[in-house]
């Protein structure tokens, strides 16, 4: 039995130096300008994601070249009618031939004369410059490596759709633990910083990464001891060096009930700085609203009280070392501050005018009670993060300028404390870029679990900041790389403003949601079986998603992989900052 359909002898390419034909456009299925089937010739093969090209003559015009990606495939017996005829064919009783065909989805037409390919037209693999043309790589002035295709060729994204020139932001979806969302986000950063695509801006471009799960992102500045020769070769094919991130600062919250405010991490003992905000910063920087950062808080009347109390706290007098004086009372801890606020807003207190100054008039006792209960509930999770009982508090301030990548560890914090840190740092990064007055150098922000901070329903201070970043950030040079398990649970406007959308392994029910309408049906089905390290990427210039594979990280993604830190000449026990407040 022979494989294939068509007269192979007629398949001569009219393109000099082009690859030999792999098949012919079939005539039994409709061929349209957007997709068509190709019968694969004997001795040839195509697979999903292969890039192909053909040429059609059009009367009175230059020849039209059509490029496309293989989006689906089929194999069947020609010459039989029933399913069980396959056994008769196998026994040699019925004559039949095996035919293979590939569905091609058009990516580009040059010149743009949208005519269907004619049945019998030879189809060839697009290689070299033809492949670059088919995938629009030829027109990218700044090409960012984003992975490898199945044929191990480099795949690029147009930097103009990431740096704010023509678009910005990346959104990554996929099942936790399988889709490798965070790993791909860090790979994109590594490519940005080391590929040379940023030019002279690379040294001053910054990235802020929130580590929300485990301690996997605390070793970005350490080489990966598990990297093998194949992975190193993959980096070489993309033109990337092999190694860890060269410039990283790691911050973690302090241990609870630790007067020296030692960083609360277990796997990395050196090079981690603990962070907190002083009572003075909490009052003067108006951080109180971030204690009320749940979406459900916006539906409560006490948001009015939050606004009034925030304004009152801003008048606190600085005493020194982060301590403040409010109405003559010295405040050193968050608990003392909460108790003072509770006294001032107490509806049963004797000084009604004082309460009005703190809460505003016409605020009912029930609303004040809800505010106070919420405030007291925030004390336990936030106590280590808001304090003025540690000497030299400046040593515990997060510095976004000193290193290229800043990692803030949140995994040991309660949800309320996580929201506080994320909200405060997002606002700080956004305001920092607003004050700079220029979009370059860029500020990237990597935030996983985006559905927690910008849910589809409700409102919160964090959600408003993320919306501002999504809608105005690219003009200011703030680029969000957001990730979540389910895009259907994230605010639509944040997803819609992402120029690049990435999908890893999806839950089968999630894959049917409208948020993944940019994926053709075949790619939706494929998304449910993707392996770790494989992503579907869509970008504005390409009409169909690209399947990309990215190599094993060259930086340590957990403590067991961490090798030498080339940025340090000290052994961990020799770190001069270790154990210091």
Helices, strands, pairings?
Layout: E1 21-25, E2 35-40, E3 51-56, E4 64-78, H1 85-90, E5 97-110, E6 122-125, H2 129-134, E7 143-148, E8 154-158, E9 170-173, H3 181-194, E10 206-211, H4 229-237, E11 248-252, E12 272-274, H5 279-284, H6 303-313, E13 317-320, E14 323-326, E15 329-331, H7 334-345, H8 352-359, H9 365-377, H10 379-382, E16 405-409, H11 415-436, E17 443-447, H12 450-453, H13 461-476, E18 478-484, H14 492-496, E19 500-503, H15 521-527, E20 534-538, E21 546-549
Parallel strand pairs: 9-18, 9-19, 10-16, 10-17, 11-12, 11-16, 17-18
Antiparallel strand pairs: 1-2, 1-6, 2-5, 3-4, 3-6, 4-5, 7-8, 13-14, 14-15, 19-20, 20-21
Helix pairs in contact: 7-9, 11-13
Explain how this protein is built:
The chain has 581 residues and is an alpha/beta fold. The chain folds into 3 domains: 128 residues, no CATH class; 235 residues, P-loop containing nucleotide triphosphate hydrolases (Rossmann fold, 3-Layer(aba) Sandwich), CATH 3.40.50.300; 107 residues, no CATH class. The chain is built from 15 helices and 21 strands. The strands form 4 sheets. It has a 10-stranded mixed beta sheet with strand order 12-11-16-10-17-18-9-19-20-21. It has a 6-stranded antiparallel β-barrel with strand order 1-2-5-4-3-6. A 3-stranded antiparallel beta sheet has the order 13-14-15, covered by helices on one side. A hairpin with a 2-residue loop joins strand 13 and strand 14. It is elongated, with a radius of gyration of 29 Å.
